[in-house]
Every structure is written in C-alpha cells, then in structure tokens.
Amino acid sequence: MDFWFSYIALASIYVLLGLSTNLLVGIAGIFSVSQAAVFGVGAYIVAFFLMNETMSFLPALAIAALCCIALNILVTLPALRVSGDYFVVTSFGIQLLATAVFTNWTDGTGGANGLPGIPPPDLAGKALESSGEVVSLCVAGMGLGCLIFWLVMRAPFGRLLRAIREDELAVAAAGKSVLRAKVSAAALAGAFAGTAGGLYATFLSFIDPSSFDLDSSILLLTMVVVGGARTLAGSILGPFLLLALPQILTLVDIPTTVAAAARQLIYGVLLIAFMLFRPQGLAGEKL
Amino acid sequence: MTAYLQASGVDVSFGGLKALNDCGFTVQQGKITCLVGPNGAGKTTIFNVITGFLRPGAGSVSFKGQTLDGWKPQAIVAAGIARTFQNLRLFVDLTAIDNVLASMPAQTGEEPVAAIFRPFHVASAQRHRRVEALAILNRVGLIERANDFTRNLSYGEQKLLTIARVLATGAELILLDEPASGLSAGALDGVMALLRRLQDDGKTLLVVEHNTRVVQQIADDVLFLHQGHLMAQGTPEAIVNDPALAEIYFGGTI
Ligand SMILES: Nc1ncnc2c1ncn2[C@@H]1O[C@H](COP(=O)(O)OP(=O)(O)O)[C@@H](O)[C@H]1O
Ligand SMILES: [Mg+2]
Hints:
The complex is a heterodimer. Chain A is 75% helix and 1% strand. By secondary structure, chain A is mainly α. In chain A, helix 10 packs across helix 12 and helix 11 packs antiparallel against helix 12 (256-277). Chain A has helices spanning 3-27, 35-51, 57-81, 84-104, 106-109, 131-154, 156-166, 168-173, 178-204, 214-227, 232-251, 256-277; strands spanning 122-123, 126-127. The longest helix of chain A has 27 residues, at 178-204. Chain A has one domain (2-213). Chain B has two domains: 1-80 and 171-254, P-loop containing nucleotide triphosphate hydrolases (Rossmann fold); 93-166, no CATH class. Chain B contains ten helices and ten strands. In chain B, strand 9 (221-226) and strand 10 (229-234) form a beta hairpin. Classes of the chains: A mainly alpha, B alpha/beta. Chains A and B meet through helix 6, helix 7, helix 8 and helix 9 of A and helix 2, helix 4 and helix 5 of B. The complex binds adenosine-5'-diphosphate and magnesium ion. Residues 43-44, 86 of chain B line the site of magnesium ion.
C-alpha cells in the first residue's frame, strides 16, 4: 500500500487510541499502562468474527467495542480502590497478563505467530478492497471519535471529570459520585480502544502480540505526553507526529534492526524530555 | 417535636486522640448557629461527621427526624445539607462559573450517553443552568468574575465562591467552615450581610467562627465546643460574657 495511505490510516487508528488514553490518564487521572491490552482484545475479537465469517464488520466492531468497555471498566476498577502509585503496578501486571494470553493462547490468537489473512472490512455487504476505501473508513472512525470526545468534554460530563482531577473530595461534597464518573470515563476509553483494535486488525489483515505489548502502551502514553494531555488537538498531534518518526528514520541510512532500537530510544528520550521541559506537550495541558 | 439537625453522643478518635468526645447538640431551622471553640476543639471534625466524610466511632446524627448514619456524602447533599471547607478546596483550574455549575445537582449530559446522543438538548439545558449559576454568583457578589479562572480570584473572592458553590447544590442547611477568617474588615461586613440574606431566603446556617464580633452580630444561637465536647449552648451574649468560657477560649487551657 502506498506510504501516505498507510500512514494516514495508522495515524487515524492511533488517534482513537490517543483519545482513549487521554480520557483515562489525562482527564480521569487513572494512570493506566495497559491500554494496548484493551486495544489488542478489540483487534482479536474483530479478527475472530471476520475470519470465521460469523458476521460482517460493523456488528463485529460493535461487539469488540462492547467487550472492551466491559474489560476497561474491569481493569480500571482497581484504580478506584488503590491509590495512584499502586495502580500503575496493577496496570503493569494487567498488561503483562494480556501479553502472556495473546502469546500463549495459540488456538484463539495464533500465539506469537499471529493471525494472518484477516479479511478486509465490509460495509453494507460490500468488501472494501481498495486502500483508498479502507483509509477513508479509518479516517471516518477517527472523525467520529474526535466528535464524540469533543461533545463529551464540552458537556457537564467533561466539567465533572476536570473537577475530579482537581479535587475528588470537593466533588463528593458537591453531591456527585466520583466513582460513577470514573467508570463512565473508563467505559468510553474502552469503546475507543476496542474500535481502534477492530480497525487495526482489518486494515493490516495481520495481527500479532507485538502490537499490543507494554511497549505499545508506553508509546500511547508518549503520544499523549508529546501531543498534550486533555485536549483534542493534543490527541491528534501526538499520533501523527510519533508515527512519522519510523518513516523519517528510514530516510536515514541505517539497518532495519538498528532502526527499531533507535525508534524505542527516541520515544524514550522524547517522553523524558517532554515531561521535564514541556509537560503540557505541544497542544495540551500539564499531565 | 424532632430537632432540625441533631447530633448525639458522637465520638471520633484519631489514634489515641479523641477529636470528638460524646458530642451532642441541636440546630434549629431558619437560625444562624455559630460553632465556636479553641483550635483543635473538633469543629471541622463534626462537620466531617455530619456530611458523611467521616464515620464516627459512636453516636449519631439526624436531620429532620431521619438518621444520616452510614450515608455517603452524595446522599447527604441530596438530603439538603452542604458544606464548605476551611481550606476552600475550589477547582482552581476552572472558571468561577464552572465551579458553581459543577456543584449543581442532576444535570443532563453529566454522563457520556446523553452528552453524545442528545448534544442539543444538553446544550440548551446548560444555557438555562448558566443563567441560574450567574444568579448565584450575583447573589454572592461575584458576577463580574464569572468567567475568570478561580486561581486568579483574590482570597476573599475565593471564599465567596465557596459559598456560591454550596448554594448551587440547593441545600437548605449550609455548613460554613470559617467563612470570615482571613478577610479584611470590609470583606467581613460583606460576608455577614450575605449570611443574613441567606437566612432571609430560608436557609439554615451552621457557621464555624472565631471572631467574637462576627458571632455577636450574626448568631441566633451559639454552640461552644471544647475538647470534642459541647461545653455550652446559648445566646451570643450569654456565651461571650461567660467568664469560664472566656478563660478556655483566651486563656489557652487546651
Ligand atoms: N485526619 C486527622 N488525623 C489525625 N488527627 C486529626 C485529623 N483531623 C483532625 N485531627 C485532630 O483532631 C482534633 C480536632 O480537629 P478539628 O476538628 O480540625 O479542630 P477545629 O476545631 O480546629 O476545626 C485536632 O487535635 C486535630 O489535630
Ligand atoms: Mg477547623
């Protein structure tokens, strides 16, 4: 597929993931390092339904989104019980557990070899074969995600989440349920991550556990930090910039094995540099 | 006749320290009741108990004849009791009006489903709420600062905003934790006038206050707390002129 097409499709999918991570980490203040796990579950569910021809793309995507809503609520529930620092450790464990399942449950996920040959998405009975059509679908998904994020954040729900981030006790004193709001944020973040997973599986037609591991979760956090926490613009900028990085690296004449390591290195340096020198990211607010 | 607000036999311990020790009193509807006592007497702690932030080791609190024991803070706000914090706890990164709006009960669009599927309905409901919020800010004298970020408000304005925030909950019984401390003389008069206007609106106020001048001017009834126990209850004159209480209050016997 043409470079620009795949870049735009992939970046669109990562914008959905950026929105998900931003909602959870930036806005609700739930510091999760397991968003890639939820992303992966969405991808495997859609792959499963399409490969077995159980149903068409949109219902499969809807089921993936619903499952990821439930899953994300489940994995963030500890955050509502234990305090921030402890939750990072819990979330870390959840991510490792997910990677272990993705890698070892060979019957369901194809194990480390992954699942090849995932059919392209279909809409209204027609398979989207051309790359232009698939890219349009991903961009439409991103557009819908951005619209939802914008609507939610300008509604009283968005204000409630911002207030919670500042002072949970004061929110409780105003008669609001902090728990309910956080569960809602986790649910929405799950829907975004699951949808992104489904788009990712059909777009690439091949998935394996390496896309859904701890490195990916950290990449998502880096995107939010670089782009900027809590804003729509930040959630869009981060993925588009960081995904351009591997392509820029291919322009530099280095072996591919080194390039992968160099990419991780640069992500790490970016994460630290932004946290230290520009915590609000390019277009956001301080995390 | 059942009391409007009644606390009885409330005990709270922090480790070995008894912050409240068989604490009991009543508050009458429509009155301004001042809660006085030396630092560390347990005034903030009894507020925490009444509003559901702290479970007492013993004792109970009832409101209009109904027990509040074991209730969550949200349920207590819904029942009509709201409080301010001694250390304000405003949402300083939100505007003044957003602080008020964030404290208004049951709003459409406060969960994502309505926010996503009924955006126009949510927006029009918010326009109405903004009008109400402006009226509340006007009531406390902050209408000019409605769209300013709370961190840019002066300390006195921030204190007024905490009162606006409890008014936004619609509560009928309002607990104010040192609303007048740290204010200039001019601001103090403003707050006292505001508290009287709230009383005229039918609100009941329980106010922690140190300044005896303020107590004498606004209180209908005074509760004197010492070492977690109610030492005396009476009119401002009776309390302020009681030499034994003055000795505790100013003599530093803690
Ligand atoms: N969370 C807490 N942990 C330990 N001790 C506390 C706590 N809250 C209050 N105290 C103690 O309880 C006593 C009463 O405190 P408080 O109710 O804040 O007094 P005040 O009358 O000045 O508002 C004080 O001795 C205080 O140090
Ligand atoms: Mg106090």
